[in-house]
Amino acid sequence: MGDFSRPDGARHPHHPRTYEILDPDEIRAVTATRPHAVADRTFACMCGESWEDPHLTEEAVRLRDPLSPDGIPARHRDRWAGAAPVGLREYAGALARGEEDPERPRGVPLAVVFGWLGAVREEPRDAAWLLAERGPERLLAGAPTAELAWAVRETDRAGLEGAVRFFAGEGFTGRHPKHRRVADTARDLLLRYARSHRPGDLAVLERRLLRTPEDRVRRS
Predict the structure, then answer these.
(1) Residue 1: helix, strand or coil by DSSP?
(2) Radius of gyration of the chain from Cα atoms?
(3) Which SS3 state, helix, strand or coil, does residue 182 take?
(4) Which contacts (CB < 8 Å, 24+ apart) does range 11-15 have?
(5) Sign (positive/negative) of CA torsion 159, 138, 127, 81?
(6) Cβ contacts of 77 within 8 Å, gap of 6 or more
(7) Where in the chain does DSSP place strands (E)?
(8) Is 15 within a domain?
(9) How far is Cα 42 from Cα 117, in angstroms, rounded to an integer?
(10) Rounded CA gap, 135 and 92, in Å?
């Protein structure tokens, strides 16, 4: 893992400052551009290197450039976009190309978006990890709490993973208290999943997931 920023400060808007390269072919491509690295064993992910390193070839610079369409970061972003659920791939592709605020997809259930956020990725810390968080969360952030809560009831296990991550994150916890009221069924599903699979999120969910007024009346 290392810092792969451009020296001129130009950045892909969704490019993380650090990421991992694990794919053997990509590692070979990087090391092939730096033959001295095999001898000094400093090639692993190019950690701590400078763009002004005299050992870096033009090919090495191109491979690590976050704006290069055929560089390693672009490959990671394209891989992430291609794995998006049907109905979300166009949106994911726009984000991968560098659009900051692409048109929101229509007709895609929020339960599917939860599943997209919670999906297991083979290389979770590659150059698309920031997109993998931002892409789904941007779609969820603007949804009314009642719709989000209903989607929790309709989603699958991966969706519950994504839902817990979303409801425990700033995109939800920063809402006004009246917009954090969740019906019992969804609240219980989220707390039960967090208790079993994401215990670190349990306390914030218990504190931030408020019951709906109807629940309070029924229980009084």
Answers:
(1) coil
(2) 21
(3) strand
(4) 11/66, 11/67, 12/66, 12/67, 12/73, 12/77, 12/98, 13/98, 13/100, 14/77, 14/95, 14/96, 14/98, 14/100, 14/130, 14/131, 14/134, 15/66, 15/73, 15/127, 15/130
(5) positive
(6) 12, 14, 95, 96, 127, 128, 131
(7) 2-3, 18-19, 181-182, 210-211
(8) no
(9) 35
(10) 7
- Please state the domain count of the chain: 1
Mean pLDDT value across residues 114-136: 96
In-domain check, residue 18: no
Record the pTM: 0.85
Query: Is 101 a member of any domain?
Result: yes
Neighbours of 144 (CB within 10 A): 10
Say whether pLDDT at 198 is over 80: yes
Residue 196 CB contacts under 8 Å (≥ 6 apart), including other chains: none
| Tokens of residue 37, six digits | 């690295």
Enclosing domain of residue 185? 74-211
117, 169 Cβ separation under 8 angstroms: no
- Does the residue 187 lie in any domain? yes
Residue 17, pLDDT score: 85
